[in-house]
Each structure stands twice: as structure tokens, then as C-alpha cells.
Design brief:
heterodimer; A: 848 residues; 4 domains; eight-stranded mixed β-sheet; 24 strands; 16% strand; B: 258 residues; alpha/beta; Rossmann fold; six-stranded mixed β-sheet; ABC3_permease_C (chain A); Macrolide_Exporter_MacB (chain A); membrane (chain A)
Chain lengths: 848, 258
């Protein structure tokens, strides 16, 4: 029996290759995802290992990165440094002073996008820097800049660059040097960097305090890291901590592991979706291949093969095919993963070297998944094949399609069950919000599966509807009829495309709804038409001179203008946003808030106002006392709650008098709201305010739309990222449609021969197959879009209580999906259509 | 679309046609210098044993296969040397086909199958003519059925209607009764006879069934790629009698050729 299987496989190479493609792709994605994740981690780990190379112990402030979410840095005190230097076991000491700054480029705008701009002292040894031009900064007015900074700012050696931090004003520096990093790199992970003298760096980072971000210590000969650690203990004190270089690197690795594992899950998700889609393709291909072999199987049964033998023979074929294809896929995947690693490492991480790590799990998982999926997918067709009655071999009859009643009823039941879950969840039938959300989400997933089962049933009406588009051409009409000829086959093929389109449509719909909800709430609650603020991507918030406020208020057509400062403070042991303004009541009004209790008039020293949500969170009422420590504050202040504000959702937390802003993260205002009077021209006011702030290039005048587009730019990136998912689904879908079409063309050879014999041209034949292909693809896309919109709507409804109140349809994206599906149909049709148009008429019509 | 003229003109002619398959040792000569004319408005049967070249001759006449040497004409149109496009157009406009396997499109109804050639040509079939054929073939109450809902005889009658729908210059029928029971076969043959007698249709039919050949006006016998006998006004008995002495005929033909 096995021999017969093998010979049978050898005789059907074309079909085998088509079936294998789906398996190869699925396996390759899994292997590539695992290799890529492991390699990126290895590469990043290498990068961490190079930090403070040669040092034995690193001394840093306790919890240096962020104490909670505190925005202001702590440092290692100068006395600690002196004590370390004085220690006999210490051979060498280097210091690091670093944090984010803003620098203005040639155009006067803040340099940088998502990657930060860093200030550092030139003596820092955390990375190896190589001077390319010029020299190191020697005076406080001098700076050396990274090559990436030169690229992004447009400035160069000899130019003057303006930089500032939250603790310094805009200061001009002369660029005296341009440097790169070990391995010829221009940048570390895309960031730009400015290197100052140590004292200037301390002024920028610590407001001039003689403290350090970190101290790297090298042990004297004969002293190991642990001994040095012990010896330094008395010198370090309680404010700082000493850790071995190894521990420091491990910490860095643990941090980067969090990021790399997110990338890994993301990639693995892609792989699993590819596998999920390939299940449809493999099952479909096997069904078609076996349907085409029913006569042969019946003949085998007639000469005495048992049902078990038939099943085993089909499964053996699937097993051999799956193993071979999965092995190829694993190999390709490992290679692709390794190749992608260098692309990502060079393109995004700016690493000098890439380490390719191939974990055993990669090929093993790929082969296991590929093999398992193939055999499982072949099981149903195998059992069906074994039921072929032997008389089938002698009969030459046109077989009617199998009824789709069973699958349709199942699909309906599943869809209704899911819908019930959604309705119960959305109507808040269950006790907790979480339970309702879960019910709606699970219901949505179940509906998805239900609709996938219903595709066969849906294919008739939808394809008939689509057919109207092609009815002008007879070949098109035949193609449309062919597409609805075998609803099962059309459905499974379309389902492969539907899955991907559903996922991206649902996500895009949700993200668009979130954006829309934000915009709508913004427009309805915020009175001010204009904002004066800097780019949200600036390394430190852009601030402006508060004196300009009076001039803005004096502009013709300005009804009101309020300045805003903000800080993340510790209030009664919790992190809270605190705002300040020279006109607090005006600010609250601009945000649409109202004073619900107490009064904010003349909010003075020791007095605080709270949003109702914040007051509720801390359980405080009017007259109660809270303790607050601001970012730059060294001591706690006591405040009495004098007002509670309601309906102030666009502004968080608390309000205090501007007298405290010296201790704020932004000691200067970082935003102004400008309310334009009714009837005044917003454009004129914008132009006048722009003139007033012309000497402060890091802030600009923005309207709602401009401001929101900055805030929601993250969503745009997320939407772009999920389009990659679509691209992947499309590739798999193309293969699926090609498979179905090629096999259909093979099955219909005689019919094609007849059509050609009675006068159908090659062009008409090509059109007929192309229409069938495009119809299937469009059907899949339409189902996906419909289901995706439904799922997006369900999730939006479920999230409505959290503020996502608007439902928005991403029309442009949906149009693009439809266009892409037509492209999929066209691409998939090429090979089968050419094959169909070249059918050998004589061979096709001669009797057997 | 021409109607057959009362004057006997030639609908299809072959002149010195040669056709061989394969090369070297494996070469099989299917047709050796065949020259034959088929008159308009006549029903001709081509007979011969398996491998005699009768199907090849029909394929060459119908423009489905190319000839190695010699020329073929359909009416005044030379078939030999036409491009694929021109051949396709020729088949569409001037030739009708009836196959042994019926070869109907399962996605279309009987009526749609009948008007298929016109639809492919993007033309409208003559409704009176179609009605007449459908009536003659007794298919009136089967028009909305799909092929799977029809018996073999009904399917072949639909195929006959399709072949005649565009009033082709010639209809080629390839073993049209090969897949049918005796009664259904006889119905189909009677219709072919009727279409010649009443509509002036030209029909060339390949068959190996003597009783089928008896419906024709003339029988051309093929053996080893050559025409060995040309019989007019055949009856089943005459045909069977001729086939009994086939070896002698072949031997005589070979001697003549040598």
C-alpha cells in the first residue's frame, strides 16, 4: 500500500507542490519568528555586555531609572565619588552624567522624533565613542555631537547649536567635534547625542548640582569584582548602590528581554495566523486532490483495499508531504529569521555586530506544527475518501455537490451562541465589568468562527451579487458561475483571506474609533480653539516664557488665554498629576470643567483643588489635608482641599498655585490654551499669536486637529503595523486561491476543451478564470470586512464606558483592502488562467 | 450564417492530407494522403476499426488538429494554416460539435447550453430557429433543467441543439450514440437525419456502429489511415457485410498504393 502511495505521489507532482506551499509558508513563519526573537535578544545582550566594558563595579543612585514614574533624576553625590576614588582597591574611576535634552536644529525646530536626544559628559565610558572630526569639548560653551545628530539637525562642525533642559534656559554651544560609536555606527538605537564637559552636563541634567548619573569603577590588580564591591560598601552610603558589572549587564538584559519578548510574541502571532490560515488551505487542497482521485480510490476498494488502508494511505501521503514541506519551511524560516536579524539590527538597533541565535525550538516547532497541521487537515478528507463505494470506479456520472446543510446549521448555531454572549455582555447582564467584557469578547470570537462556518452558505447570494458586476461579459458570467459551483471549495478558499481581513479590519476599526472618540470629546469639551505647545515627541517637554501670556491676551479677538504647568507629584503616597496656572479657574473652564464643591477663587498657598475622580481615589473631601512632594521638591508640603471640580475629564488630578512651579517638572509653562472670541477670525488670531512666539521656536500654535494628530500619531503607527499582518494574510491567500483554481482547472479540463472546441477564444478562457479568481477573493474580503466591522463595533460598544464612545469606519483602509483583494484575485489567476487557455483541446475532449 | 443551397456544393473537403504522430521508431501514420469531399446537405458517416484514423480525420477537418501535408477547406475557407484565433472563430461560426460524452456545462441550464456558442460569440441566437430545434428535439419542458437533472439521451439532445443553434456549415458528430442506450441513440440519429432532410444541415459523423451508419446518405470507410471504400445509400446489412470483408479491402488498398 505504501508503495502505491509513493508512486501515486510521484505521479502528481504539481498538486503536491501546491499543497506543500501552504505548509512551507506556515512552518517558515514559525521558525523565522523564533529565530528572529532569539537573535534579537542575543544581539541586544551583546550590546548590553559592551556597556562599561572593563569596569568591575557600577555605582548608581538607588532605583536610578525612575522612582515610580518620577521624571526628575537623582544622582550619586560628589562625596561618594571622592570616597570611592580614595579607596585603595580602586584602580580607575569614570563618571557618567546623562539625561534627555532638547536641541534645536538648523530650522529652529526641536531635533528628533521618537528616539530621544541625550546629553552626556564626554568622560562617560558606558559606550565606546570615536571622534571623527574635531576634538572633545574642553570649555562649558563647547559640545561634541554624534554623527546621527549632524544628520538630523543639519548642523555641523563649527556651527552653533542651541540646547536646553528643564533646568536650563536655551543656551548656545559651539560644535567642536563630531563622533561615532565603535563599529562605525552613527547612533545608539537611533538616538541623537550631545557630549558636554562634565560640569556643563551636570548643569543640564542636575541643575548644576555636583552629582553623577553613575560611577564606573575598575578594580586594582588582584582585586576581583566581589571583593571591590565589599570594599566600596562603606563609601557608597544609603542614597546610592554598588553592583558588579555582571549584575549591571544582567539588569540591562532583563529590561531589554521585556521588549524583545514583546517583539517575539508579535512575530509568533504572525506565524500562528499563517499556520491557522494554512490549515484551511491544506484541508481544502487535500479535499480537492482526493475528490479528483475518487475513481482511483474506488478502484483500490474494488480490488480489495480495506477502509483502514485507504485512510492510512491518505494519511501516509499527508505525513510524507507534511514532513518534507515542514522541513523545507523550517530551513527557509531559519534562514529568513537570520537574514531579518541583520536587517533589524542594522536598521533599528544600530548594533555594530549581529549575533544570530538558532534555538533548537525553532526547527523543531516548525516541523512539528507543519507535520501536525498537515496530517490533521488530511484526516477529514481521508475518512471521506474511505467511504467511497467501489462501484464509483465503474460509474461515470456527474456528481452533485454534497449538501452544505450540516455545516450551515452548525455555523448558525455557533453564530447565534456568540451573538448571545455579545448581547448579554453589552447589556451588562453579569455582575462585574470584567465579566461583561469577557462575555462580549468571547462572543465576538465565537461569532468569527460561526461566520467562517457559514461562508459556504453565504457564498451563493454574495457571489451572485458580485456576479452582477461581470454580467456584461459572457466569459465573466461563466467565471462567476464557476465560483459558486462548489460552495464548500469557494468558502474555504475565501475563508483563508477572510481571516486576515477580519483581523485587520477589526483592529483598524477599533483604533479609528478610539481616535474619533478622542477627537469628538476634545471638540465638545475643550473651549479653547488654539494650543501653544511643543511637539509631543520632544525629549523634554517644550516650554515657553510665561511673559508672552499677557501679550497673547492683548491680541484682538482673544477671549481668554491660560498658561499651564504640570508635574507628576507624590500626593499622600500616590502618583498624581498636578497642574498650575496663573488663571486656574480659567484653565478649568477651558477644559470644560465646573467647580462642583467649594471655591477656587484666589487659590493660595497651602490650598489645593482636585478633580472629583482624584478626590474620590484618595477618599478626601473639602477641608481635608493632603501631603504633596513635587518632582524637584526636596520636602513635602501640606495642602487643604478647597474645591472639587467636575466634568473636567481632559485634565487630570490636582491644581495648585503657580508659586509651586519652581518645584515642578516643568518650571515654565508647557502649554497655553487660547480661546478665540465668537466672530473673530481664528486664522488672524493664529497668525498674530505665531508672531508673538516667533522667538520661541520650540513651541507653535496648533488647532485641535493639529494637536490631536500629534497625540494620536501612535495609533497611526499601530494601524500601519497591522497592515503588515494583512500583507502576510494576502500572500497566504494568493497561494490558496492559486491552489483552488489550478485544481479546478485540472478537474474541468474536458469542459475547457469543449468550450475551446465550440469557439471560445483563449482571451475569453483567461477572462473566465480571472473572474472566478477575483470573485472568490472579493467574496473573502467582503466577508472579512463585514465580520471585522462587526467585531470592531462590538469591542467599541464594550469599551464605550471607558470613553470610546464613537464608532468610526476606516473607509479609506477598507477601500484599500478591497483593492488589495482584487489584486490578490488577479495575481492568483495568472498561472491557472494561462493553463486553462492552453488546454489541449484534442486531449481534453477525446474519450477515455 | 448560410442556409444550405439546393445545389449540391461541397461543405468540407480534404486534399492529400497526411498526419503522423511521434517520431522515429514510435512514429504512427494516422492519415496517408487522404482526399475526400463532403457535400452540403448530406449526412456522411466515417467508419473504420480502432486506430484506422477516423477520429484524426475528423479532428483535422474540424480545425482541431493540424495536418502535416495537404489542405482542408470548410466551404470556401481554407482551414490549413489558420492562426489559433482564426481557427477559434471558424469553429465558432461555421462548425457545430456533438461529442460522445455530451460535454455540457454543468453550471448552465439546458437552454443556456443550447445558446452557448452564440453567447461566446457575443451574439444573439435566432429565437425562431432555436424554438424550432427545441421543438423538434422535444426539449421544450426541459429548458430550465441543469445537465445533472437530465437523462443521458436528453443531455445528448441538448448537445445536438447546441450544435445546430448557430446554423453551422457543418456539424461534426464524434460517436454521438456511444454513451447512449439503443432507444436514446435512435432518437438522436433520427434527429440528425431530420436536420439533414428538413433543414438542409450538413453532418459528418464518426461511428463504429453499423446501425448508426445506416442513417447516413453515404459511408466512408477508413483503414490504416486510408479511405478504402465509399458507399452510398447504406443499410446496416450492407455495412456489416462490408466490414466482414474488411481485411480484403485493406489488402486491396495497400496493393493499389504499392
Amino acid at each position: 500500500m505504501l508503495r502505491a502511495t509513493l508512486k501515486g505521489m510521484a505521479a502528481r507532482k504539481a498538486r503536491l507542490i501546491l499543497t506543500s506551499l501552504a505548509v512551507v509558508l506556515g512552518s517558515a513563519f514559525i521558525a523565522a519568528a523564533l529565530v528572529l526573537t532569539a537573535s534579537i535578544r542575543a544581539t541586544v545582550d551583546d550590546l548590553s555586555g559592551d556597556a562599561y566594558k572593563g569596569a568591575d563595579v557600577i555605582v548608581q543612585p538607588v532605583e536610578p531609572e525612575n522612582r515610580g514614574d518620577r521624571l526628575v533624576r537623582d544622582g550619586v553625590a560628589a562625596e561618594t565619588l571622592a570616597a570611592i576614588e580614595a579607596n585603595g582597591d580602586v584602580a580607575d574611576v569614570s563618571t557618567t552624567v546623562t539625561w534627555m535634552v532638547n536641541a534645536l536644529g538648523e530650522d529652529g525646530k526641536i531635533v528628533g522624533g521618537f528616539a530621544p536626544t541625550m546629553a552626556v559628559n564626554w568622560g562617560d565610558e558606558s559606550v565606546e565613542r570615536e571622534m571623527r572630526e574635531g576634538r572633545a569639548p574642553e570649555a562649558d560653551g563647547e559640545v561634541a555631537v554624534s554623527a546621527q545628530f549632524v544628520t538630523e539637525s543639519g548642523l555641523g562642525l563649527g556651527d552653533t547649536v542651541t540646547a536646553y533642559s528643564l533646568s536650563t534656559d536655551e543656551t548656545p554651544y559651539e560644535i567642536v567635534g563630531v563622533y561615532g560609536y565603535a563599529g562605525g555606527r552613527d547612533s545608539l538605537s537611533g538616538s541623537t547625542e550631545l557630549a558636554f564637559t562634565t560640569t556643563e552636563a551636570q548643569r543640564l541634567v542636575f541643575g548644576g548640582e555636583d552629582v553623577y548619573s553613575a560611577v564606573a569603577v575598575t578594580a586594582a590588580d588582584g582585586v576581583d569584582a566581589d571583593e571591590l564591591l565589599k570594599a566600596l560598601e562603606p563609601a557608597v552610603g544609603a542614597e546610592s548602590e554598588a553592583i558588579t558589572h555582571q549584575a549591571y549587564v544582567d539588569d540591562l538584559n532583563a529590561e531589554s528581554a521585556e521588549v524583545t519578548s514583546v517583539i517575539g510574541y508579535f512575530l509568533l502571532g504572525f506565524g500562528l495566523i499563517a499556520v491557522f490560515v494554512s490549515v484551511f488551505l491544506i484541508a481544502n487542497t487535500f479535499s480537492i486532490v482526493i475528490a479528483g482521485r475518487l475513481k482511483e480510490i474506488a478502484m483500490m476498494r474494488a480490488i480489495g483495499a480495506g477502509r483502514g488502508q485507504i485512510i492510512r494511505s491518505v494519511l501516509a501521503e499527508a505525513g510524507l508531504l507534511g514532513a518534507a514541506a515542514a522541513a523545507v519551511g523550517a530551513g527557509l524560516g531559519v534562514a529568513a529569521g537570520a537574514g531579518l536579524t541583520s536587517v533589524i539590527a542594522n536598521g533599528f538597533l544600530d548594533t555594530a555586530t549581529t549575533s544570530v541565535a538558532i534555538p533548537w525550538s525553532a526547527p523543531l516547532a516548525a516541523v512539528a506544527v507543519g507535520l501536525g497541521v498537515t496530517v490533521l487537515s488530511a484526516l477529514v478528507p481521508a475518512v471521506r475518501a474511505s467511504k467511497t463505494p467501489p462501484v464509483e470506479a465503474m460509474r461515470e456520472a456527474v456528481k452533485a455537490d454534497k449538501p452544505i446543510t450540516g455545516i450551515t446549521v452548525t455555523g448558525l448555531v455557533v453564530t447565534l451562541l456568540g451573538a448571545a454572549g455579545i448581547i448579554l455582555g453589552l447589556n451588562e447582564t453579569f455582575g462585574s465589568d470584567d465579566a461583561n467584557l469577557i462575555a462580549a469578547a468571547v462572543g465576538a470570537g465565537v461569532v468569527f468562527i460561526g461566520v467562517a462556518l457559514l461562508t459556504a452558505w453565504l457564498s451563493k447570494p454574495v457571489v451572485a451579487l458580485l456576479g452582477a458586476v461581470w454580467s456584461w461579459s459572457f466569459a465573466g458570467r461563466l467565471g462567476r458561475l464557476n465560483a459558486s459551483r462548489n460552495p464548500r471549495r469557494t468558502a474555504v478558499t475565501a475563508a483563508a483571506l477572510m481571516i486576515g481581513v477580519t483581523l485587520v479590519t477589526a483592529t483598524a476599526t477599533l483604533l479609528t474609533s478610539v481616535k474619533e472618540s478622542l477627537a469628538e470629546r476634545f471638540d465638545t469639551t475643550i473651549k479653547a480653539e488654539l494650543f501653544v505647545t511643543g511637539p509631543v515627541t520632544a525629549s523634554v517637554p517644550a516650554t515657553f516664557d510665561p511673559e508672552v501670556m499677557d501679550e497673547i491676551r492683548a491680541v484682538d479677538g482673544v477671549e481668554a488665554a491660560v498658561d499651564l504647568y504640570y508635574d507628576l507629584a507624590q500626593i499622600d503616597g500616590t502618583e498624581q498629576y498636578v497642574n498650575a496656572s496663573s488663571d486656574i479657574e480659567g484653565a478649568v473652564t477651558q477644559f470644560g470643567g465646573v467647580v462642583a464643591e467649594g471655591s477656587m477663587k484666589d487659590l493660595g498657598e497651602g490650598e489645593i483643588a482636585a478633580n472629583d475622580a482624584a478626590a474620590e481615589q484618595l477618599g478626601i473631601g473639602i477641608g481635608d489635608t493632603v501631603t504633596a512632594t513635587f518632582s524637584r521638591g526636596t520636602e513635602a508640603h501640606e495642602f487643604t482641599l478647597v474645591a472639587i471640580i467636575a466634568d473636567n475629564e481632559e485634565s487630570d488630578g490636582f491644581y495648585v498655585d503657580p508659586a509651586y512651579t519652581a518645584e515642578f517638572y516643568t518650571p515654565k509653562p508647557n502649554m497655553a490654551l487660547v480661546d478665540v472670541a465668537d466672530g473673530a477670525d481664528v486664522g488672524d488670531v493664529t497668525a498674530e499669536v505665531e508672531d508673538l512666539i516667533a522667538d520661541q521656536p520650540s513651541v507653535s500654535v496648533q488647532n485641535h486637529e493639529e494637536y490631536l494628530s500629534q497625540v494620536t500619531v501612535f495609533f497611526d503607527y499601530a494601524i500601519i503595523a497591522i497592515q503588515l499582518l494583512l500583507a502576510l494574510a494576502m500572500i497566504v491567500a494568493v497561494i490558496g486561491v492559486v491552489n483552488t483554481l489550478v485544481l479546478s482547472v485540472l478537474e474541468r479540463t474536458r469542459e475547457l476543451g469543449m468550450l475551446r472546441a465550440i469557439g471560445m477564444t483563449r482571451g475569453q478562457t483567461t477572462r473566465m478564470v480571472t473572474v472566478e479568481s477575483v470573485t472568490i477573493a472579493l467574496f473573502g474580503a467582503l466577508l472579512g470586512i463585514g465580520t471585522g466591522l462587526l467585531l470592531g463595533w462590538i469591542v467599541q460598544q464594550a469599551l464605550a464606558p471607558t470613553g470610546i464612545e464613537s464608532f468610526a469606519i476606516p473607509t479609506a483602509l477598507i477601500a484599500a483592502y478591497l483593492a488589495a483583494s482584487v489584486l490578490v484575485g488577479l495575481l492568483a489567476a495568472i498561472a491557472p488562467a494561462v493553463r486553462a487557455s492552453k488546454v489541449d483541446i484534442l486531449g481534453a475532449i477525446s474519450y477515455e | 450564417m448560410s442556409t444550405a443551397s439546393p445545389v449540391k456544393t461541397t461543405a468540407v473537403s480534404a486534399e492529400g492530407v497526411w498526419k503522423a504522430y511521434g517520431t522515429g521508431e514510435a512514429q504512427v501514420v494516422a492519415l496517408r494522403d487522404v482526399s475526400v469531399q463532403f457535400a452540403s446537405g448530406a449526412f456522411t458517416a466515417i467508419m473504420g476499426p480502432s486506430g484506422s484514423g477516423k477520429s484524426t480525420l475528423m479532428h483535422c477537418l474540424a480545425g482541431l488538429d493540424t495536418t502535416d501535408r495537404g489542405t482542408v477547406h470548410i466551404g470556401d475557407t481554407p482551414v490549413t494554416g489558420l492562426s489559433d484565433k482564426a481557427l477559434t472563430k471558424l469553429r465558432r461560426d461555421k462548425i457545430g460539435f456533438i461529442f460522445q460524452q455530451f460535454n455540457l456545462l454543468p453550471t448552465l441550464t439546458a437552454e443556456e447550453n443550447i445558446t452557448l456558442p452564440a453567447a461566446i460569440a457575443g451574439a444573439k441566437a435566432d429565437p425562431d430557429w432555436i424554438k424550432k430545434i427545441i421543438h423538434t428535439l422535444d426539449l421544450t419542458d426541459r429548458l430550465s433543467h441543469k445537465p445533472t437533472e437530465l437523462s443521458g439521451g436528453q443531455q445528448q439532445r441538448v448537445a445536438c441543439a447546441r450544435a445546430l443553434a448557430s446554423r453551422p456549415e457543418v456539424v461534426f458528430a464524434d460517436e454521438p450514440t456511444g454513451n447512449l442506450d439503443t432507444r436514446s441513440g435512435a432518437e438522436v440519429l433520427r434527429f440528425l437525419r431530420t436536420s439533414v432532410d428538413e433543414f438542409g444541415q450538413t453532418i459528418v459523423m464518426v461511428t463504429h456502429d453499423p446501425s448508426a451508419a445506416a442513417y447516413a446518405d453515404r459511408v466512408v470507410f477508413l483503414a490504416d489511415g486510408q479511405i478504402v471504400e465509399d458507399m452510398t445509400e447504406p443499410t446496416a446489412d450492407k455495412v456489416i457485410d462490408k466490414m466482414k470483408h474488411f481485411e480484403e479491402l485493406v489488402a486491396a488498398a495497400q496493393e493499389a498504393a504499392a
